[in-house]
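Our preliminary data section would be incomplete without showing what the modeling component actually yields. Below, a chain of 163 amino acids is followed by its predicted structure, encoded as tokens that our downstream tools consume directly.
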Amino acid sequence: MRRLYWYFEIFLFFSSVLSQFMNPVWQQYYPASHTWATISEIQNRFRRIRMGKGQYRMLPSGNAEISCEFPDSMLMISNVIWERADMGTRDLNVLYRRHGITHQYDVHTRPHGSTLHIFDVTPLDRGLYRCLASALDPNTNQMVTLFQDTEFNPEFNRPYGYY
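Predicted structure:
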């Protein structure tokens, strides 16, 4: 019985490692398994369009600003939301609570962009941040989801400024 249990543990370990290689979280715009959605829901999802790349700026106070700006030609329909694309979570509070850290951040929105302010930056804040917004494509008159990725990888001993 003990040997069977040991084989089962090995199987679980290798299957979880293999699943991370086959479907890394940071590459998934939509989950690979669509069992939770009907076919019509999948077909009716808005097309995602990458619109450039965001940037970040370290501030002298130990804080950081991550910004994204979308073109004025797109008719923005929703506010910009932020997610940690490498962690697979849209709710940044959940991410910090999962690690037992109380962390503060603030979001400032503009008509065609947004800035995520992270207070007291720590190594846990390093990662891939994605800003998303719904917009109307003027060429096709269809709803699309715009997004920009920002690789936030600050070096704490570098001078302050944009990266």
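Confidence is low (pLDDT under 50) at residues 26-34. The first helix runs from residue 2 to 22. Preliminary results of this kind motivate Aim 1 of the renewal.
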